Amino acid sequence: MAQVTVEETQKFLPILRITLGFMFFSAFVRRAINVPAKLDPNSSAYIGGKLITFLPHAWAPIKGMLENILLNPSLLYEFIILFTALEAIFGLFMILGLLTRLSGLVLAGLAWGIGLAAGWLGSTCVDEWQIAAVEGAAAFMFVFTGSRWLSVDYLLAKRSKGIRIGKYHIPLW
């Protein structure tokens, strides 16, 4: 059996990167384009209602933040818009392989934040936990691996070797 190098396995990362990015970007599409009522506080489809169901099960430190947001409807609306915008921007960045390490960090934070906010809802509703575990782990993996083949970062890396902050070198890819 032939030995497979790390460089060869990097060629398969775009499959995971694009799928992961699509999972987050599609959340934006579902809310903003397919069912815009999810972003309308006056609609029965408003996503803020789902966050209310999270509160009894939420874990610290998210529970306090979630409680504060839910007690202030204008803050809740701004939070939902910001969360949706972050899913759109960094989901698209992940699809393109643009700022992949930063995108991985942001997306892992969003995914794990959902998991902490949902808490353990019981054996009949583990969707948020599955999403948080799989998407968070996959996103965090890109913090370490970056994006190479078939990515904007790869094209940028050909022109620039990365960012230097003091004695530290941070590769874009």
From TrEMBL:
Pfam families xrefs: DoxD
UniProt keywords, alphabetically: Membrane, Transmembrane, Transmembrane helix
TM helices/strands, residue ranges: 12-33, 75-98, 105-123, 129-151
InterPro entries, alphabetized: DoxD (IPR007301)
Domain named TQO small subunit DoxD: residues: 12-173
Keyword Transferase: no
Domain of life: Archaea
Official protein name in the record: Terminal quinol oxidase, subunit, putative (DoxD-like)
